[in-house]
Amino acid sequence: MTDHLITAADLAASLHTDHPPIVLDVRWRLGGPDGHPDYVAGHIPGAVFVRLDEDLAAHGDPRAGRHPLPEAAAFQASARRWGIDDGDTVVVYDDWQGYGAARAWWMLRDAGLAASVLDGGLAAWRAAGLPLEQGEIVPAPGSVTLHPGRMPQLTIDEAAALAASADGVLMDARAGERYRGETEPIDPRAGHIPGAISAPTSENVNADGTLRTAAELEARFAALGIGDGPVGVYCGSGVSAAQEVLALAVAGRDAALYPGSWSEWSQHPDRPVATGAQA
Hints:
The structure is a single chain. The chain has 11 helices and 9 strands. By secondary structure, the protein is α/β, with parallel strands linked by helices. It has 2 domains: 5-127, Oxidized Rhodanese, domain 1, CATH 3.40.250.10; 156-265, Oxidized Rhodanese, domain 1 (3-Layer(aba) Sandwich). The strands form 2 sheets. A 5-stranded parallel β-sheet has the order 1-5-4-2-3. Strand 2, helix 2 (36-41) and strand 3 (48-49) form a beta-alpha-beta unit. Helix 5 packs across helix 10 (240-250). It is globular and about 50 Å long. The two termini are 33 Å apart. The mean pLDDT is 96.
């Protein structure tokens, strides 16, 4: 375990301390139904539901991508609504490869909060035989003050420059068939940013949804050509890429997130597109 991850057993124990963490349920599926009904049916005791599309993203010009980061004031209002105060620690979880949880983890860390992801998500909690709670948790409003800007991120121009650089690597976290341009179910153009390498997030997790060990992840990224230079990550809309940033952090590597990702890049006809298996 690292300070980025927490086990189900350690989370369960922490809930009975004098200062338990704030627990956030970030169940979400790309193109799927809202996770709120499942949350109401059963969640980790005390967990507050977070709507990724509303709380962890902004909406406006499609050219900015499908899940651009919200304004700092809007995110602070959400964090206070979740009951977070200054000095609190936060644990986030989901039920789908850590995508929603990692997005929340990245944003909370970027804002200066101590945040961890429940390794293996809700499935790990259930597998440990730990109890679930039904209904809605509405906490007393918190008073946290956020200080965003702690995590590195890339603009569209910086992503292009990194992909073209000789010493850095831009990683594409989407499924291989989307990278190669064989299919594109969501965004207007198929393919990848020229120079980016394919690094699907599915290869960061075990069959039970837990992240692979730090040594395994380090070996995986080394095999992909990740060296000592700068590293950036993008995906479809900046959500699953956060899981790759988390995996890189567990492996001891800092990486920049390109929040606009392919959903921004593909909206700009002047941006080139590559297809096939090669960067």
